[in-house]
Amino acid sequence: ENSNAFSSVGNAISPITNEKKTPHLTFAQDRSISTGFYNYRVVTSTKKTGQKMVDALKLRKLNNIVGVVESTAGTLSLYNGFSTIAETDDELKIIDTIDVNPGEKDFNIIIQKINAMKPDVVVISLQAPEVDVFMKQAKQNELTMPIVGIQSFSFLKDKSLAEGLWYVDVAFADKKFLNDYKNKFGEDVTNFAENFYTMLQVVVNNYENLNTVNMPTAEDFINNMISVDNIISPLGKLSLDKEEQNVDSEASIRLIQNGKIEEIEE
Question: What are the distances in angstroms from CA 215 to CA 39, 201, 212, 220, 227?
Fold first, then answer.
């Protein structure tokens, strides 16, 4: 699985892997994937991306918010992680949250409605190709307030649509990993390569630290997930949340600059 768009796939797989007693790791966002003994996520939690967005909005004094969220498991999880925290914050106010269906191609009425509400900022949680469509139509309809994304801009096919805009995403790849990858393959990392390498590291580290003389079982692997707590990965330092069955990492703030994604340090 390779993005929040595949949370629905993870939800379909997790009952099967649990029944078959097969460890299942994914970096899809939906918490409900991590049910049953054998299912773990390896992804920055929506609690951390949500808090990062709240902090970034408050820092920039963007207090009155309209949300636009696509009705898929991953995008809803990301947005709900943000809105749950924002709704308890005295400085922020979510004026409205607009739900859109997957495959939506006409955002014109929605954008006109947003312009009429006059929020300080629009927070979107959309996947591809809907995010490209929304950003194009936002420009065509002269949306007057800034747009920020929860992961959404990473999915843009045309990054110029968000040129100069910031957004919150999962952990940013470690600079050493980025350099090592480019030196080995002669090109920048493809989307989510750091996530796959991190999951691979979780698997390798787990098995290397199993204290057994026999062939390790799937149950041994799951019981030994504690061994990956605090390891350093392509996504930085990992932390095991046993209750959530997630190997967590720190959220990032990113900027689209000259068509490329860069991390903002705050």
Answer: 21, 20, 7, 10, 18
Cα 106 to its chain centre, rounded Å, is 25
Please report the pLDDT score of residue 1 as a whole number: 35
* CA pair distance 186, 249, nearest whole angstrom: 27
Residues of the chain with pLDDT under 50: 1-5
Helix, strand, or coil (residue 4) = helix
From the list 85, 79, 104, the residue with the least C-alpha distance to 29 is: 79
- How far is residue 125 from each of residues 105, 128, 147, measured CA to CA in Å? 15, 10, 11
Question: Helix crossing, 193-208 with 175-185: angle to 10°?
Answer: 100
Question: CB of 63 within 8 A of CB of 114?
Answer: no
Instruction: Report which secondary-structure segment, H or E, holds 193.
Output: helix 193-208
Helices (H), 88-148: 108-117, 130-140
**Cα 120 to the center of its chain, rounded Å:** 23
| Closest-CA residue to 33 (of 61, 80, 73) | 73
Q: Is 123 helix (H, G, I), strand (E, B) or coil?
A: strand
> pTM score, two decimals?
0.88
pLDDT of residue 6: 63
Do 206 and 238 form a contact (C-beta atoms < 8 A)?
no
Taking the C-alpha atoms of residue 137 and residue 205, their distance in angstroms, rounded to an integer, is: 46
Q: What are the pLDDT digits (tens) for 131-173?
A: 999 999 999 999 999 999 999 999 999 999 999 999 999 999 9
Q: What is the pLDDT of residue 29?
A: 80
Nearest-angstrom CA–CA distance, 89 and 233: 33
Give me the amino acid identity at 54. Answer: V
Q: Output the pLDDT for position 2.
A: 34
